[in-house]
Amino acid sequence: METGEGADGPSGPGEPGAGPELTGLGCASFNQDSTSLAVGTKTGYKLFSVTSVDKLDCIYESETPDVYIVERLFSSSLVVVVSLSIPRRMNVYHFKKGTEICNYSYSNNILSVRLNRQRLVVCLEESVYIHNIKDMKLLKTLLNTPSNPSGLCALSINHSNSYLAYPGSSTIGEIIVYDANNLSTVTMIPAHDSPLAALTFNSSGTKLASASERGTVIRVFSIPEGQRMFEFRRGMKRYVNISSLSFSPDAQFLCASSNTETVHIFKLEQHGPSGEEECPTWGSYVGKMFSAASSYLPAQVSGVMSQERAFATVRLLVAGQRNVCTLATIQKLPRLLVASSDGQLFIYNVDPQDGGECVLAQKHRLFGEDEDKEEGVESEGSEVTVPVQACPSYAATVAIPATGPVTTTLTGYSEDGGAKKGEVIPEHEFAAGPVCLDDENEFPPINWCRDGTRGGQGRRL
Length: 461
Hints:
This protein is mostly beta strands. It contains three helices and 34 strands.
């Protein structure tokens, strides 16, 4: 998921072999178009199809132990895995054929991995590695980046607008936006007063949402300009740890989950010059009253009152758990999906017109038996019988041409990052043609050699 994208590393693994013992889910991530969910546990990892409400299909299961990063590239067979047993090594697999394509070792522990159709990005605490996903060649290394112990970063899934965002400071909420296609810095956004906690792009790479460690305000910026477009207030009474932000496929909504029991959904709508709406609601009326009153108040108070509130909410059964959320269209209806650290997937119906409290449609166990089903208890909304429909692919999203290269450079930039080239696993060859991911039966971006079957060594960076 790309979902994404708060700190979803291993809660900071230490030196190899010194990481925390995994309990429950070690990690959970939705793929780039939210049609698949990948989860890692102490005993292995699983890939699920989430294109149906009532049925959760496990399409692959591996016994690789202590997995804390697992990322799938759209609906292809390419999956990236990192384990606590070797936290400095990234393994790239063809899961349908059960073989390793290649592996890379880095100078420090891997904290996060991001994928799109052009790039594979590996984030360490003080460096970022950008690979060409077509042949896994290292293209750029950004060294001496501000300390980023959670591995926070976001990569646009649109291969034409392949933007990368990561913290520009460890003390305040600055965001560096980097063009991963043209390999140049685009802009720096002064987003928050406190350090960043979560980042995510919309599907076309034209909007970037961010939240700070305080977790009270969520902001949305235009990309590549970096201009503030929206500002949403999650709450005022307490600071929270926002663990996940995600846009809906059409970028009309933005969801945010945290360590509290509430998931918020915000609506991105621009009011007309007169501020009038076709069908005014009580909420909009109260909002106008606040806006009118704010002109008589100090600037700081006025800013708080002008921030938009949540359009819809979900109240989870348990607070204090880490979770990841995404907005998707399943069986032609908008849904909110929440995967929690205790191993459950909740699917909620979202009312795109009126918002309000979302209704639980179904819940699934991600490992072990579903206790509710054993007891014969049906979840609310479990009678949904709409035929399964494939979710629209983000590949159909209109690609906006990328901007030209910007001459700004980053401090500490290195052409090769001290990379030492190793052998490519002989049984694979690199694709020469364009990457095509529309057919999940294909295996982009790396094709098989016709005659090679031997193993080989990975690369060390």
